[in-house]
Amino acid sequence: xxxHIFRREDEERTELxxxxxxxxxxGKGSDTYYNAWLHDSEIECxxxxxxxxxxxxxxxxxxxxxxxxxxxxxxxxQLEYEFYKYRCLDKDCRHVFSKPVGFASKRDNxxxxxxxxxxxxxxxxxxxxxxxxxxxxSISRQAIGQIFNRWVRKKEARRxxxxxxxxxxxxxxxxxxxxYTIFLNVDHGIRVYDIVYGVSSADIAAVLLKDGVxxxxxxxxxxxxxxxxxxxxxxxxxxxxxxxxxxxxxVYADFAEFAHKKLKWSPVxxxxxxxxxxxxxxxxxxxxxQRLLDSRPGIKPAYDDFNRLRNIIANxxxxxxxxxxxxWLNSADPExxxxxxxxxxxxxxxxxxxxxxxxxxxxxxxRLYALTSRLEKLISSMRTFSDEILKARILYSxxxxxxxxxxxxxxEVLAVFxxxxxxxxxxxx
Length: 429
Prior knowledge:
By secondary structure, the chain is of the alpha/beta class. The chain has 3 domains: 11-156, no CATH class; 167-242 and 364-427, Nucleotidyltransferase, domain 5 (2-Layer Sandwich), CATH 3.30.420; 244-349. Helices cover 43% and strands 17% of the residues. It has 17 helices and 11 strands. The longest helix is centred in the middle third of the chain and has 19 residues, at 244-262. The radius of gyration is 30 Å and the shape is elongated.
């Protein structure tokens, strides 16, 4: 048993510290330096062998960075925690140990509370420099980065899976500085399963083969040839579906570029946006659109073809079939066809996968394209953040079961990001 040493408690600072297992010693330390002890430091038995023959060996101390709040502001303090080490006297054991605590890890130099506070601020979109400033400069931005990276590593270590979902979506995206591959669990709803920065066969294999032979029965993807080839190589027995909206997004990009060149010198305001608007959303700008089309007659056939295709794909109630796409291609404006030659090649190359969308519509979540497009735009808007931070913000901003990982709900991730964007807009008013 440990000797009982009488120490006077600083009740005010103990309450401010707020760790139930600790009391702060009176007459020692300051407002930014707390000396703390366990309320009950006695050891009943050895945690390894259970023997009650335990001897107090020596007194030790460890200093942590911690966070306290008086309700008005938060400040970083140094928390000196003093503790005894004990030795088991059993001759077959001789284990040396201390009483476990819940406020920090023995291996780290910050408390869980400070670590979580920093992590939450990063996930909310704050930079390391902003966090350092909020904490009154008492901790450097380099240290904040190290603390956050350690927090992420702990999350990654806890994130455990048993097998891939039976229905998986693999989609590629890009920002100004990087490309990425996102993996979605679409077994029940749409959940972000993983994200890697890079679009290569090795990047995709790292996720698919991480938990052994993949058990994927249905895989959804965009038209990225690297993704398609990886699926052929690693998931040869899975039903591969390319939702037609992902192919149409290529047509959309082709038409946007085609129209921009055709309308380069047009005086109509917001011409690049106007020409891409669905006809049902034009409202009072119908006359502006007509003026735009009249000013550049060469754009009208392509414009009509583009909107005809948009209506074909949007009209789900009539259950379009693949031949409608082929018929559209055969009748499209020749100049527009030439501009989207690469996209036409994609349609011809992935005919089977795109046609499978019609045959197996029930396997494709209805909101898949809409939600993933929103996510791509949000990722693109966060160009100031590192890849590691972006990944953490996507995977860990919403609480999910890390021990039995099946992904984080995409709609909840988007809701969090939308709120953060809204909050930032209010700050800048």
